[in-house]
Design goal:
Elements lengths: L12 H22 L4 H4 L5 H12 L13 H9 L3 H27 L1 H12 L2 H6 L6 H21 L2 H15 L8 H11 L5 H28 L17 H10 L3 H15 L9 H18 L1 H6 L11 H7 L9 H8 L1 H8 L5 H29 L1 H20 L14 H26 L1
C-alpha cells in the first residue's frame, strides 16, 4: 500500500465532478418511478414491508412499536423520507455517493490517486449499485457502513493504530444493526488482529477483548429490547427465514424439485405448526423452531449445503433491477428458481420473455462490471503469487468480500454484492491501471 501524505485532501476536484455526474444520472434513473403514480410501490420490493412498518411508526412519533422482524438501522433512515418518495430518491442517491468516499480513500491508499478515482468510478457506476440505489431496501445504507469498515480495516492492517481498529469494529457493529449478516464479522476482525505482525501479544489481547466488548455493547441494547418483546436476544427475527429460503434450496437439490415449490411447502407446514399458540406464544419461539429445522436440514445434507455456498451467480450484475427501475420489466417472476435449476441463459430468457434486444441494449451500462472483473482477476493472482508478503491483504479480501458472498448461501441475489464491492473496486482499479501500464510499455517497445 502507498503511504498517504500527511495533508492529503479528503477528496479532489475530479472526484467532485464524478459525484455530481453520478447524482444527476441517479436522479434521472428515478424519474420513471417518481412518475409511475405509485412511487412507494415502484421502489418497494417484497422485503420492503418489514422496513416500512417500523419506519411509518417512527415517522408518526410512535417509536418502533413492537416490530422485531427487522434490524432498526434502515427504518430509522426510511422514516425521514417514507412519505416523500422524491426525498427518498435524493437521500439514497447522496448515501450512495457518500459511500464512494471511503472507496476513493482506500483505492488511493492502496495504489495512488488515480487508483482511488478509478475505484470510486467503478463503484458509483457499477450496475448493481446504480440499480439498487433508489430502492427502499437496506443494501445501499449497509454498503456505506461496509465501505468504511473496509477502509478502516485496511488502514489498521497497514499502520496498526488502535484508533483504526476500534473504528473498524464499531462501524461493523452499527452495520449489523442495519443487516445482521455483519454479526459474525467480528470473528474475521479478531483473526486479522491475531495475525497482524508488529503488535505485542499483550496489546492484541487488550484490543481483542475491548473490541469484542465494544461490538456487542453496541448490539446489546437492541437485543435486550427485542427480548423484552418475546423475540429473544437477537437483532431481528427475519433470520428464521433461512429455513424457508436456504432450506428450500437444499430440499430442491435433494428432491430435484423447484425452489418455489419447496418454499411454499415449508411455509404451509410452518403455518400449521405455529397454529398451536400454546407451544409458540411469541416470535422468539417461532424463530427458534425455524432455526432448529434449518440446522437439521444442514446436518442431514452438509455436502449440498456447503456446495451451495460457492456459486458464481452472485457476481452477476443486477441488469434486472436496472430494467425494473426503467419500467421495462417487473419483479417477482421466479427467475431465481430458473437460475438455480436450469442455468443463466434460461433465466435470462425467462426474465426478459425471450426479448434478447433488452440485455443487448443494456451492455453499455454493464461495462463497469466487466471492467471490474478484468481488473480484479489479475490483481488477486498477483496477491496469491506474493502470498508471503501479501497475506494480510488476501485475508482482508476474504473478510471484506468472500464473507458477504459465502454467508447468503444459495440465495444469490445480485444486491448482496454491494458490501463486497468496495474492496473489489480497489483491487479492480489497481489491476486495470497495471494492465494499462503493461499495454503502454508493450506498445512503446513495438514502436
Amino acid at each position: 500500500m502507498i503511504p498517504l501524505p500527511k495533508n492529503s485532501p479528503l477528496i479532489d476536484r475530479r472526484f467532485l465532478y464524478l459525484a455530481a455526474v453520478t447524482l444527476l444520472a441517479h436522479l434521472a434513473l428515478q424519474i420513471p418511478g417518481l412518475c409511475s403514480g405509485d412511487p412507494a410501490g415502484f421502489f418497494s420490493r417484497p422485503d420492503t414491508a418489514g422496513y416500512l412498518a417500523p419506519a411509518m411508526a417512527l415517522s408518526s412519533g410512535q417509536g418502533f412499536g413492537e416490530c422485531v422482524e427487522r434490524a432498526p438501522g434502515f427504518p430509522l433512515i426510511l422514516a425521514a423520507v417514507c412519505r416523500t418518495p422524491a426525498g427518498a430518491a435524493l437521500l439514497f442517491g447522496l448515501i450512495g455517493i457518500w459511500t464512494a468516499i471511503p472507496v476513493y480513500r482506500a483505492g488511493m491508499r492502496y495504489a495512488g490517486k488515480n487508483a482511488g478515482l478509478l475505484a470510486a468510478g467503478l463503484f458509483l457506476w457499477n450496475p448493481t449499485v446504480m440499480a439498487n440505489r433508489g430502492l427502499w431496501l437496506s443494501d445501499t445504507l449497509f454498503g456505506l457502513f461496509a465501505a468504511y469498515q473496509c477502509y478502516f480495516l485496511l488502514e489498521f492492517l497497514e499502520d496498526g493504530k488502535r484508533k483504526d481498529w476500534f473504528l473498524t469494529v464499531g462501524i461493523a457493529a452499527f452495520g449489523a444493526l442495519i443487516r445482521p449478516i455483519n454479526l459474525a464479522w467480528i470473528v474475521s476482525a479478531l483473526f486479522l488482529l491475531a495475525i497482524r505482525k508488529g503488535i505485542t501479544l499483550r496489546e492484541k489481547c487488550f484490543r481483542g477483548i475491548a473490541g469484542a466488548a465494544l461490538f456487542f455493547a453496541i448490539l446489546f441494547p437492541w437485543e435486550m429490547r427485542n427480548a423484552s418483546l418475546g423475540a429473544g436476544y437477537c437483532i431481528d427475527t427475519n433470520t428464521g427465514a433461512m429455513y424457508h429460503q436456504n432450506g428450500a434450496m437444499i430440499l430442491a437439490a435433494v428432491n430435484h424439485s423447484s425452489f418455489e415449490e419447496e418454499k411454499a411447502r415449508i411455509l404451509k407446514n410452518l403455518e400449521v405448526e405455529f397454529a398451536d399458540r400454546s407451544r409458540y406464544p411469541d416470535a422468539g419461539s417461532r424463530t427458534a423452531y425455524r432455526l432448529k429445522k434449518f440446522r437439521e436440514l444442514i446436518a442431514a445434507h452438509p455436502v449440498i449445503w456447503i456446495r451451495q455456498h460457492f456459486r458464481p451467480h452472485v457476481l452477476i450484475p443486477d441488469a434486472a433491477a436496472l430494467c425494473e427501475d426503467l419500467g421495462v420489466t417487473s419483479p417477482g417472476r421466479g427467475t431465481l428458481d430458473i437460475l438455480h435449476r436450469r442455468g443463466l441463459v434460461p433465466a435470462i430468457l425467462h426474465y426478459f420473455d425471450g426479448r434478447w434486444y433488452i440485455p443487448l441494449l443494456l451492455l453499455p451500462l454493464l461495462l463497469p462490471a466487466g471492467l471490474l472483473l478484468v481488473g480484479v482477476l489479475p490483481e488477486i493472482c498477483r496477491l496469491l503469487r506474493n502470498i508471503r508478503t501479501e497475506y494480510l491483504m488476501i485475508f482482508a479480501v476474504l473478510a471484506c468480500a468472500e464473507y458477504y458472498f459465502f454467508l447468503p448461501g444459495p440465495i444469490t441475489v445480485p444486491r448482496y454484492q454491494i458490501p463486497a464491492l468496495p474492496i473489489l473496486c480497489v483491487l479492480g482499479a489497481a489491476g486495470l491501471l497495471k494492465l494499462r501500464e503493461h499495454i503502454l510499455i508493450r506498445m512503446h517497445r513495438m514502436n
